[in-house]
Structures are given as C-alpha cells and as structure tokens.
Amino acid sequence: MLIDFLEEIVVLAVGKGSEPIAELLYANKHQNEFNIAKKLGITINQTRNILYKIEDYGLVSSERKKDKKKGWYTYYWKFEILKCLEFLKKRLLETRERFETQINRREEKQYYICEDCNLEYSEDEALLMEFTCDECGELFTTKDNSVLLKGLKKNLEKIDKKLAEIEIEVVKEQKKKDRRRMVGLKAEAEENAKKKEDAKKKREERKAERDKIKAAEKVLKEKENPTKKKTVKKVAKKVAKKAVKKVAKKKVVAKKKVAKKAVKKVAKKKVVAKSSRPKSAASTNAIIHRKKVVKKRPVKKSSVEKTFKNLVKKVSRKTTSNKKVVKKKRK
Length: 331
Hints:
mainly alpha; three-stranded antiparallel sheet; 10 helices
C-alpha cells in the first residue's frame, strides 16, 4: 500500500514513466545514485533530473560522500516517508474541495447543453444567448446532472478512503521513527557511560603513577640525607619541650596571683563582719586598736600553703597531659 502511495507521489512530482524509482528510494539506508541509474536502465543525468524534481518538494534526503580512489563526490538518496505522505494528503484534500464545490453547484444551479456541439452552459450564459447556440443555431436542452453527481460522489468516497489509509500509514511510520530514536538514544547513553568509565580508569591510573613517583622520590631523599631527618626530629622535640615549660610557668604564676587575691578578699570580709557590731565609746577604741593589730598580724600560713599546693598539683597534671598530646602528634 505504501509503495502505491509513493508511486502516486512520484507521478504528481515528476510525471508518468518515473514510477519505478519509488521502489528503489523506499529503503532504510540511502541509495547510491549510480546504482539507481543502472537498475532503471537510464543515464546518470536522467536519474539526477528525476531526483532533483522530487527534491524540490522536499520529499527526499541526500548524503554526499567522497570516493577515495577517484576523488569525486557521489550522492546517496532516500525517501522521507512522513513528508511524502503529508504531501499526498495535502493534494488529496485540495481535490476533495474541488469535488465538493462542483457537487454543490450541480445541486443548486441548472445547466444547459447543445446536443449537436456538445457544449455546456450555465443558466446565466444561456439567458444571454437566448437559449440558442451561436454556432449551430439549435435550442439548448436542460442537462441531467444526476449521472455526473453520482460520479463526483464516488470520487469523494475514494478520496476519503485514501485519506484514512494515509493516516494509518502515518501512525505506523511515526512509531517506527520513535523506535529508531529510542534505539539511538540508548546507544548514545551507553557510549557516554563507556566514555565516563574509561576516563575514570585513566584518572585512577594517573593517580597511581603519581603516588608511585612520589614514594620513589621520598625513598631517594631518605637514602641521600638520613642525618638531616634525625636532626630535624631532635630540634622539634626541644622546641616542643620549651613550649610546654613556658605554658606551665605561665599557668602557675596566674594561679598564684588568683590565690593571693582570694586570701586578701577573705581577710577583708572578716574585718567588715567584725565592724558591723553596735558601737560604744569603749568598743570603738577597741575596734580601732584591733584594726591596727589586724594590719600588723601576718596571715596564717597554713590555709595559704594548702591552696597553693592544690593549685600546683593541678598545674602539674595539666602539663603532663599536654606533653602526652604533643608526643602523640609527633608520632
């Protein structure tokens, strides 16, 4: 059915006698123009003329390839089936409109005919000619349009059937096109995935090569100057010890200051508590005397020493923990 449609399209585009080219162009792959000329039994110029006429309507697609031996270009041709079906559909719709207009005219208006001359005239033309033929002089007779209307209606039915068949072929071709597109997309996706995997493998190989080169360079450096490494480690240890000692001293000094301030605050609070009792003449003198005595008295060493020892213990614990952390980091 599709080949019949294609032959009809070729006749509409080129003319009669060029129908055999439809079978050759109806293929999945593009066909060589020299092979087409051989199969048709005509020259290459004649085949090219036919192909160019079909191409003017946009019904064929072509590819150009260069011959490696001879050096000239050869063209490969193929039908674009969806475009061909759309072209035929458009032409059939135009003819259908023409038939419909003729049917409407025949049903609405009356026509006259000269039986001797076999010439047809409309009602307006017959009135102007006074229903007599100018050539033979005989009177017109009314024409029976029933036979002609039956023929026109049959042609309309044929065109409607053809249009329905074309719609079916269009759906089939669209499905084929979608399948090809899906297959092409899958192939592209697989190719992209392979490319990504290959790129990933190459990156990993390069990384492994770099790591090997770095390891070899380190080994060479260690062989060349092993004494430098030891001296660097010793210097690092000394610097770390000095830093830890400085931190410990700073913390001890800070905590001593805090302890002294705390002791002074305790002594002041005691003096304020005693001064808050009820005052009399004798008591005020006694309080003044006591205050002076309090200033002269030294603070008991027992409480201060205890607090100081506790602070020193805490500081020593923290310094030991810092040293352990430093050792771990060096390892």
